[in-house]
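Replying to the earlier thread about multi-chain prediction with a worked example.

Input:
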Amino acid sequence: MGLTNTLIMTEKLVVRNLDISFGGKQVLKNVSITFPDQNIVALIGPSGCGKSTLLRALNRMHDLTPQAKVTGEILLDGHAILAQKIDVVEVRKKVGMVFQKPNLFPKSIFENVAYGLKINKMGDKEEIRERVEQAIKSCYLWDEVGDRLDKPALELSGGQQQRLCIARAIAIEPEVILMDEPCAALDPISTLKIEELMRQLREKYAVVIVTHNMQQAQRVADATAFMYLGELIEYAPTQNLFHSPQHELTQRYIKGAFG
Amino acid sequence: MTRSKRIEYFGFGVLRLITLAVVLLIFWLIADLFVKGGHTLNWAFWTTFPQKGMTTGGIFPTVVGTAFVTLITALFAVPVGVASAIYLSEYARDHFLSRLIRASIRNLAGVPSIIYGLFGVALFVEGLHFGTSVLSAGLTLGLLSLPYIITATEEALKTVPKSYREGALALGATQWETIVSVVLPPALPGISTGVMLGLSRAAGETAPILFTGVAYYLRYLPGTVWDSFMALPYHLYVLATQHHAIEEVRPLAYGTALTLLGMITLLNFMAIQIRYRYQAQSPA
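Result:
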């Protein structure tokens, strides 16, 4: 298992022996996986397999859940990010996240994208304006919202909101982007736009995406990991995983025998 | 018409009648006050001192006293209440102690107000040597309104979706920044409603100020927080039950009641204004 023979890559995120339990119930069992830079990795598997749990460990979102217990090791560029003394704010600045449902703040379009920039003090007023514009442009939203940045963001359509969430995430120039089923609440056209955007993001970032949609994984992901009942079953270049799965569970899952 | 339809018509009819009865009762009460005391209301009534053993003249010092005490109550209870609620709702982990604190706060709302009055005497008047003063009474009323403010603020914070918090934290905001910039703004309308309800409850109380600072009659206005004061609810009580010429002052009592209702309505109106202003800004 591994990608080393087919891809030349830098290891951006390395997960080693990760166990996660919530109130004594183990949901992730001894998972080890490597996410290469400038690649899209898709995490697939049936509901409850732990794919979102793994994703949320990568920017320490489990810190918010008091009963969550996370053990093991996660290295970002070789730095252990689960360590107590690590500043979790620094981790989250480098590892951005896009959620299943667009979660824009009840503020204007501009203020939403500017939020992370202001919080992290990334430049004066003029610089922030430029960065906001740049982020919105790179999400192909400028034509749609460029002339109404001061309008409430929640008036946008679902697809536009999700693209603005991505703009908000990349505005602070992270190194990794996590996406938790970003198209689950979207129509097919918006989904295609987001997928196109993912391919662009791949040029600069390591992208990890959780998806229920196997076609989506095949359309966008360089490598795909199949998870089942908290374990990583198989991890391979996407074409290999879908066309010549090594593991019987993977075979049955991608044929639709269970889900 | 089928049987179940008839039952539904009848059922909702009864509910409608009951609702109507309650509303009518309130209107009747207000109308009664206006009929019996409306003629006393004029600018002079609110701006002059009581005269001739409170048989004529106005209620100026009681309006000032109630406004002053309510201000002290707000200055104490709003920051403390909102801060406690933020701590309980956003920081405190869910364990035995925090559950106990929450339950206690809810139960405090049911404590009879005379108990607050006695507690105020023991703590502020005697213990801290604040004497019978605006300060002692304001702080006592503050204690009384705290459970309302804390509970309402906690409820308002709970209605802010978790996804807002996650969104801000994922962008590298600290928990403090998240609360200040993302959680509090959408919760403000709910918080201000709770604050105003708590304050209007406090402004109308008699028992807690009885031993802590209110006076039967004063010829001067409270100049500092260390002075005694006259207050609308206590003045109403005096005019209605303690006065030597009760029949004669009855219209004044009704006028006082109307004034108290008016001040409380004003507080509630402010809450509506704040809510309206913030909702106009964000469609969420």
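The CA atoms of residues 102 and 161 of chain A lie 6 Å apart.

Feel free to reuse this layout for your own posts.
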